[in-house]
Design goal:
The structure holds two protein chains of two kinds. By secondary structure, chain A is an all-alpha fold. Helix content of chain A is 70%, strand content 1%. The chains are: A mainly alpha, B alpha/beta.
Chain lengths: 334, 261
């Protein structure tokens, strides 16, 4: 256990692990190292990690409570799907797929910016209702656009979300979000969570930070949506309803708020549990929420709440991570 | 004139919290604002720092009109403050409390932040160094990685001042810095305020009920009651001012007045 711990905390191991993972993501499908079902679950895990971490930025790091994350996801899914099916040349869809993913992310980010505007004036419960309403509006809009099949859904995408593709986007998303978290903007988000008035007095442009948090959060939700659309090859508005948003919330709070490690653990655990518990059929829907209730009672911050593996902390931030002096030491010194 | 308010008035519904306030602070001065509870002292601070947009009147800082400017821009112009009820980022480390105050000072774009490229590295290093320097100057370096909420009360007050200085202000507003402190802590606070004034070349405006602190460090005192200035002068003048005594202790009853006559 100690060996694993020190290996994980060494920064030199990170590039090695990442590269090994990248090779593996090609090798697994090429040599059939895992069966297709397991490969599918791994792709799901990747998508869910992006979703959980992107929601964690607004809910965990900034301390708001957004409950309509699936809305942003649907924008990414629909925009990218329409692009690969109807706009980009069909026989070269694979080449254009990254552009479609990014376009999906940008479209979602634009709507994220729209949701950020009420957040300048509103907080907590009220903002939660705004995000909920917003995701319902998006769903009804897709329900009523015939061009994308309305309530029947939209299909015709190739299965472009392969294992290497998912791996690449998951790692890239985690990296960019981590970079933001460990920058002045990320610290601005923490300051808003802790004490918004003091944040302003300490020169933090809270409006800009809020707008940025929503834009980043929705951008990556859009990316996850684009990946999902090209994995399932079929999307309909019902897939992105309040239940989906709730699933993402569960991943975030299960893994732990304000933690990259937490979001990765939460998304992985949630995805695997859903599959493992599949034989229980309807009891699964009783067991999962029950698990959440137990967790909230005994570990209200989630598995890794407000804590982080050193692996995810950039080198320049290491200086402030020496072991914390115990409380007794502090009191003596005063 | 570093700070000047001209006819500043603040109404909340039917209540007039501040009326026609004309406050002047010269560069380098230490000015005290005193007055009974509810006299509008903290409201004045909130107007100066942009939390409230005054109903009437203007605030000038360094000759520019800062009325209605957003708080973070006023702060970046060089006005820092502490709060009556400490408002630290409680769940964050001591060093992060100070680093956050470098938000505007950190010159890099969102793209540079997203990819950790360009000016990001050097700016982050500079901010971290400057934050550690501040903690050193305030004797807080040993707690750099401790949670701010875990610090004892006196050190939390100290950290709040350190954090305010991280924005490199010209003017420091202290809202009851001695609140809840014991006499020994107040002595060390008096020393601290004198020190930072010397080292950082600051102008200080402070609200305080602790007369020992006010009388020993303020060169000039402004007395507020019901949102208006009722007296202004040196500590000696204020000590013997009849209106000040009246505001704090109340009027003599009419029967007693006739006795005096």
């Amino acid at each position: 256990m100690y060996g694993i711990r020190s290996a994980l905390s060494s920064r030199a191991t990170l590039p090695v692990l990442l590269f090994a993972g990248f090779l593996l993501s090609f090798a697994i499908p090429a040599y059939g190292l895992l069966d297709l079902y397991v490969q599918l679950i791994i792709i799901y895990i990747g998508i869910n990690i992006i979703l959980a971490l992107s929601l964690n930025i607004v809910n965990g790091y900034m301390g708001e409570f957004s409950v309509g994350h699936a809305g942003f996801m649907s924008i990414g899914a629909y925009v990218s799907a329409v692009l690969t099916v109807k706009v980009f040349p069909y026989d070269q869809a694979f080449l254009f797929f990254p552009a479609a993913i990014i376009a999906g992310g940008i479209a979602a980010a634009v709507l994220g910016l729209v949701v950020a505007i009420p957040s300048f004036k509103t907080r907590g419960d009220y903002l939660a209702i705004v995000t909920l309403a917003f995701s319902m509006i998006i769903k009804s809009v897709f329900d009523n656009i015939d061009y994308v099949g309305g309530a029947r859904g939209f299909t015709g995408m190739d299965r472009l979300t392969t294992l290497p593709m998912t791996y690449f986007w998951t790692v890239l998303s985690i990296w960019v979000m981590r970079n933001f978290i460990y920058s002045k903007f990320g610290r601005g988000m923490l300051a808003i969570r802790e004490e918004e008035i003091a944040a302003e007095m300490m020169t933090v442009d809270t409006r800009r930070v809020k707008a940025l948090a929503f834009v980043i959060s929705s951008f990556f939700a859009g990316i996850a949506g684009a990946l999902l659309a090209h994995m399932l090859q079929f999307i309909n508005p019902r897939m992105f309803d309040i239940i989906k948003s709730t699933d993402i919330l569960i991943m975030v709070y299960l893994g732990g708020i304000g933690s990259i490690t937490g979001s990765i653990i939460g998304a992985t655990l949630f995805t695997v549990l859903i599959e493992v518990l599949r034989p229980l059929e309807m009891w699964r829907m009783v067991l999962m929420p029950l698990l959440l209730v137990v967790l909230m009672i005994y570990r209200p911050l989630g598995i890794m709440g407000l804590r982080e593996l050193k692996l995810f902390i950039p080198g320049h931030d290491g200086a402030c991570l020496r072991d914390k002096p115990d409380k007794k030491g502090i009191q003596d010194a005063s | 004139m570093l700070l000047e308010t001209k006819g500043v008035t603040q109404r909340f519904g039917g209540i007039c919290a501040v009326s026609e306030l004309n406050l002047k602070v010269e560069a380098g001065e230490v000015v005290g604002v005193i007055g009974p509870n509810g006299a509008g002292k903290t409201t004045v601070f909130n107007i100066i720092t942009g939390v409230y947009n005054p109903t009437a009147g203007n605030v000038y800082f360094d000759g520019t009109d800062i009325t209605g400017m957003s708080p973070h821009r006023i702060a970046a112009k060089g006005i820092a403050r502490t709060f009556q009820n400490i408002r630290l980022f409680r769940g964050l480390s001591v060093i992060d409390n100070v680093r956050i105050a470098h938000y505007t000072a950190a010159k890099y774009s969102t793209i540079e932040a997203a990819l950790h490229i360009g000016r990001f590295g050097s700016e982050e290093r500079r901010i971290l160094d400057s934050s550690h320097d501040l903690l050193n100057a305030f004797g807080l370096e040993q707690y750099a990685s401790a949670r701010a909420a875990d610090l004892p009360y006196g050190l939390q007050r100290r950290l709040e001042i350190a954090r305010a200085l991280a924005i490199k202000p010209e003017l420091l507003l202290l809202d009851e810095p001695a609140a809840g402190m014991n006499p020994r802590e107040i002595d060390s606070l008096i020393g601290l305020i004198r020190d930072i004034r010397e080292t950082f070349g600051l102008t200080i405006l402070l609200i305080e009920h602790q007369m020992r602190l006010v009388m020993s460090i303020c060169e000039r005192i402004v007395v507020l009651d019901f949102g208006a200035t009722i007296a202004e002068g040196s500590p000696e003048e204020i000590r013997s001012d009849g209106r000040v005594i009246e505001a704090y202790l109340g009027k003599k009853q009419s029967g007693e007045v006739s006795c005096d006559a």
